Input
Amino acid sequence: MTRVFAPRGDADVLALVRAYPLAWVIGHGHADTGPFDATPLPLLPELDDSGRLASFLGHFALANPQVAALRADPRALLLFKGPDGYIAPRLVSNPTWGPTWNYAVARFHVRIEFAPDDNDHALDALAATLEAGNPDPWTTARMGPRYAQLRQHIVAFHAQVERVQATFKLGQDEQPQTFDEIVGGLDDAPLRTWMRSQRG
Output
């Protein structure tokens, strides 16, 4: 993918994973799944002292066979997908313009480190993040004794980032008039917002 579709900086990638936290965790498989296995999980970015994205915090169900596979080989790929959508020629006045698909995605090569001692932290942090803005936010304490039973069936992990690849194909290569026509005709508000953010 050309540099024209690269995000403007690390802050854009961080904004993407915060706005769209559900990621595919892809690793080597096992006898039942074949060569690869994948689980969709909400993940929270963890920053280093300089504010750069260093790892992700998440948790697996212990019953998930991918846990054993990742213990044997901790290398994994995380795939995050942000806003995307079909860009139809009807939006553009240029009769020679062809359709395309705009999207923002990020791929992280990571090493999974299981951390069962962080189970409570992982669950509390996820709840606090997803409940942010709720005037009466839910917490794990509301589950009462049932929480202690259920937390035994998960395992927290930190996915240490080793490599990042992000592609923000959001109309940066379009002529100004064409770009304005696309943004003006799109019904998808998040895609419009992200296209504008990468244009400046």
